[in-house]
Design a protein that fits this description.
30% strand, 8 strands, alpha+beta
Length: 200
């Protein structure tokens, strides 16, 4: 019975690690605590694995069920160590990102905006948690309009439109995208462009 519970816990841990792409953006500030919980779970399973290996050696590898248990634990913990966000990169299965821009703020808070080929966008904010805002966009002349916006956790509003600047010297970046809350916003908030394959 204990071994069944161990295998169940191991499978749940594996599924949580490998599906974070789909749900972590909805957790907001709870993401920090979830990552801590997953890390503690990893350590506990690692200690359990050491104990299982000890008994396996002591039994001279005669317990077939224990061999399976050790094998599964090795695979799950090994994959989590080498692929902490999951074995499969699900983003590669989605539409290609035509524009990628980012900015690092105070306390290492990071904002990343991606404009997809299928006219969808996603903005990820990592700051003591993870929040994802999604929607669609359209381009009119030199202006990008954000529409059908689905706000992430703890977000109260998003930008209505943005413009791209390329003339200045941005060092390692190819320009900046300046986002505006509304037509009355004359300052805007900039992100530095890492990739820009939008049609000119």
């Amino acid at each position: 019975m204990k071994r069944k519970k161990l295998l169940l816990a191991t499978i749940i841990f594996f599924l949580l690690i490998n599906t974070t792409y789909f749900w972590i953006g909805e957790t907001g500030i709870l993401a920090m605590f979830i990552f801590i919980l997953l890390f503690v779970s990893f350590l506990i399973l690692a200690v359990v694995l050491i104990g299982q290996v000890y008994f396996l050696i002591k039994e001279e590898f005669k317990d077939g069920n224990r061999i399976w248990t050790v094998g599964i634990l090795f695979f799950v913990l090994g994959s989590a160590a080498f692929f902490p966000t999951g074995i499969m990169d699900f983003e590669k299965l989605e539409s290609e990102s035509l524009l990628v821009a980012e900015r690092e703020g105070t306390a290492n808070c990071t904002t990343t905006l991606k404009l997809k080929k299928n006219k969808k966008f996603i903005e990820e904010n990592i700051c003591f948690g993870i929040s994802e805002t999604k929607g669609t966009y359209r381009i009119v002349n030199d202006t990008i309009y954000f529409e059908n916006v689905s706000l992430g956790p703890h977000e109260s509003e998003f930008y209505e439109f943005a413009t791209i600047t390329k003339e200045k010297d941005f060092g390692n970046y190819s320009g900046e995208i300046l986002r505006f809350r509304n037509s009355s916003d004359t300052t805007g908030v900039a992100l530095w462009i890492l990739k820009n394959e939008l049609k000119k």
